[in-house]
Amino acid sequence: YLISSQEMLKKAQRENYAVPAFNIHNLETIQVVIDTAKQMQSPVILAATPSTYRYAGTEYLINICKTAAQTKHFPFALHLDHHEDIKDIQAKIEAGIRSIMIDASHHPFEENINIVRKMVEFSHKFNASVEAELGRLGGQEDDLIVDNKDSAFTDPSAAKEYVERTGIDSLAVAIGSAHGMYKGEPKLDFERLAKIRDKVDIPLVLHGASGIPDAMVKKSISLGICKVNVATELKIAFSDALKQDFKINPDANDPRHYMQPAKLAMAKIIEDKIRICGSAGKL
Ligand code: 13P
Ligand code: ZN
Ligand code: NA
């Protein structure tokens, strides 16, 4: 019941929209992402970093998502976001995951290719889709912290070779976006994105979409981005609403009540991102 991202992203590529990928952290995020996406009939990817699987427990997370997909009659992908450990990825695929990102972007080019190609061979036996990154995003995503001086943009010609030699299904590009929020306005290198699109025919992925103005996300979709990753904006909406609610009701002690405003706040962000991605009604 957990599907791969392959068909979703191919359809998005053909029809010029993007599938939103939301990072989930707990039961409430899972519920709100699924309910909102289902309401809007949008394809969706639920992404979780290694630390989220550790926090929730891999079996818990997989089974909650399988149950959700079945009882809601809503197919979606539960995705491995920024996973690096090959054994860990293999175990999670064997446990039922069908959509992975192997992040070997911190390795030199040849090593990156070798690691990813092996992962592709393994994953495709299970019909699991594989995303990988060439170049490197700055910023922080859970345990993954990349200093700006260590970030690097994706080279279009290298991207072509990388895709051909690894056999990946989608490519995460580094064109100026970063994990977390931005201090000033982010600058995306659209020219570079267009060149990559020219040379590479698989779906392209935009990481670090939190904090990027709507118009820029839309433009990147028009230039070939088929998956848009959002984590930080959901975290902020959730915790801000929670803090606000406790301020108004300092004696609140029932999570089923005090989580409600936080869930509503996340739903608004999700709705917004689905609209920006153009994925509503594309299920
Ligand atoms: P943000 O931190 O900008 O939401 O990026 C999310 C992301 O890229 C997850 O992989
Ligand atoms: Zn990311
Ligand atoms: Na960001």
From TrEMBL:
<keyword id="KW-0862">Zinc</keyword>
<feature type="binding site">
    <location>
        <position position="180"/>
    </location>
    <ligand>
        <name>dihydroxyacetone phosphate</name>
    </ligand>
</feature>
<feature type="binding site">
    <location>
        <position position="207"/>
    </location>
    <ligand>
        <name>Zn(2+) 1</name>
    </ligand>
</feature>
<dbReference type="GO" id="GO:0008270">
    <property type="term" value="F:zinc ion binding"/>
</dbReference>
<dbReference type="InterPro" id="IPR011288">
    <property type="entry name" value="TagBP_ald_KbaY/GatY"/>
</dbReference>
<dbReference type="GO" id="GO:0005829">
    <property type="term" value="C:cytosol"/>
</dbReference>
<dbReference type="GO" id="GO:0009025">
    <property type="term" value="F:tagatose-bisphosphate aldolase activity"/>
</dbReference>
<keyword id="KW-0456">Lyase</keyword>
<feature type="binding site">
    <location>
        <position position="179"/>
    </location>
    <ligand>
        <name>Zn(2+) 1</name>
    </ligand>
</feature>
<protein>
    <recommendedName>
        <fullName>tagatose-bisphosphate aldolase</fullName>
        <ecNumber>4.1.2.40</ecNumber>
    </recommendedName>
</protein>
<feature type="binding site">
    <location>
        <begin position="208"/>
        <end position="210"/>
    </location>
    <ligand>
        <name>dihydroxyacetone phosphate</name>
    </ligand>
</feature>
<keyword id="KW-0479">Metal-binding</keyword>
<dbReference type="GO" id="GO:2001059">
    <property type="term" value="P:D-tagatose 6-phosphate catabolic process"/>
</dbReference>
<dbReference type="GO" id="GO:0005975">
    <property type="term" value="P:carbohydrate metabolic process"/>
</dbReference>
<feature type="active site" description="Proton donor">
    <location>
        <position position="81"/>
    </location>
</feature>
<feature type="binding site">
    <location>
        <position position="133"/>
    </location>
    <ligand>
        <name>Zn(2+) 2</name>
    </ligand>
</feature>
<dbReference type="InterPro" id="IPR013785">
    <property type="entry name" value="Aldolase_TIM"/>
</dbReference>
<feature type="binding site">
    <location>
        <begin position="229"/>
        <end position="232"/>
    </location>
    <ligand>
        <name>dihydroxyacetone phosphate</name>
    </ligand>
</feature>
<comment type="pathway">
    <text>Carbohydrate metabolism; D-tagatose 6-phosphate degradation; D-glyceraldehyde 3-phosphate and glycerone phosphate from D-tagatose 6-phosphate: step 2/2.</text>
</comment>
<dbReference type="InterPro" id="IPR050246">
    <property type="entry name" value="Class_II_FBP_aldolase"/>
</dbReference>
<dbReference type="Pfam" id="PF01116">
    <property type="entry name" value="F_bP_aldolase"/>
</dbReference>
<feature type="binding site">
    <location>
        <position position="103"/>
    </location>
    <ligand>
        <name>Zn(2+) 2</name>
    </ligand>
</feature>
<dbReference type="InterPro" id="IPR000771">
    <property type="entry name" value="FBA_II"/>
</dbReference>
<feature type="binding site">
    <location>
        <position position="82"/>
    </location>
    <ligand>
        <name>Zn(2+) 1</name>
    </ligand>
</feature>
